[in-house]
Write a structure and sequence with these properties.
The complex is a heterodimer. Chain A is mainly α. In chain A, about 65% of the residues lie in helices and about 0% in strands. The longest helix of chain A has about 30 residues. Chain B is an all-alpha fold. Chain B has one domain. Chain B is about 75% helix and about 0% strand. Chain B has 9 helices and no strands. The chains are: A mainly alpha, B mainly alpha. At the A-B interface, helix 1, helix 3 and helix 4 of A face helix 1, helix 2, helix 3, helix 4 and helix 7 of B.
Amino acid sequence: MTIASIVLSAGLILVLIGIWGMLTQRNILRIIVGFMLMGTGSHLVIVAIGYVSNGTAPIIDGGLSLAEAPTRSVDPIPSALAVTAIVIGLAVTAIMLAYAIRLYQARQTLSIDAFTDSKW
Amino acid sequence: MRRGAAIVLIAFLGVIFATIAASYSQRSSLPELAAAYVDLVPRELGAPNVITGILLTYRAFDTLGEVAVLFMVAAGVGLLLGAGGEERDEVQAGTRSLLKETPPTEIVQNGADILVPLIAIFAAYIVMHGHLGPGGGFQGGAVMASCVLLLLLAKPDYRIKLVHLSFIESLAGLLIVFVGIAGIVLAGGFLDNRVLPLGEFGAFFSAGAIPVLSVLLGVKVGCELSVIIERFRA
């Protein structure tokens, strides 16, 4: 079991748990937690794809000299994408929680069953 | 969604994911684009941290888009949770009276007295060393916002002046765009970091405009997250 496939499997399992949580839970806060789990799982998948065997972080310092950097470092692009993805995940969670607060103020309950009958 | 349908869907997705995970084999060498980046960033940009070089120069336009997303979120949370003048004062008076009855414990208060300056220094260190080691604008800004959160938890009377923070955040965003336009005028393109001298590799003042962009990003992200936290408070 290589490192990349362990982290990849962990990320995919987290995505599955998150999707299951979003589909079956009734409390709005638990649905939001499911969404966050799905997001965290996808970040793990992104970072796992970038791993190179026996690689180290792509930072040139005492541990990794300039000459051996192209052969011994990990792929930097998925890490950069993961930074962006984490920040945007945080932003989406903030908006979801704000909506949860407003929904609670409207109906005094956090269960989404109270909102299923507001169709036309 | 009903239990049965959810289980069928999760099983189906599980089969697809298992196929993906089983057929993935770990790489033994960098792909071409990554090898080019790892080679180019120390050479052309003078930054030892390849990831910060990518995020703040080669892919700086995506970082600018992400900054715009954060700004939209701060505005959106302000719209959803920013009550009008009277309602907000009423809610805040209620919260304050509740907190007078159960003030934060001694551990929280004394711990905050010690930790808040340390966290602020650590956040500044992360932001300013973004081009030399792990870190950068986003990471340092998030740590700064956690410092503000600790302050809000320990001192319930602490008021954040939202007007000042919004002004600072907008100013930082404007300065990022100006640095970008200076890149068009003085160097290779938008948000090129060679507007400032590259300096000696690995020194504190090196890598051109990357530390400047890091600091501006850190200030902007820290202010935005603090505004979001403050809005969730009352």
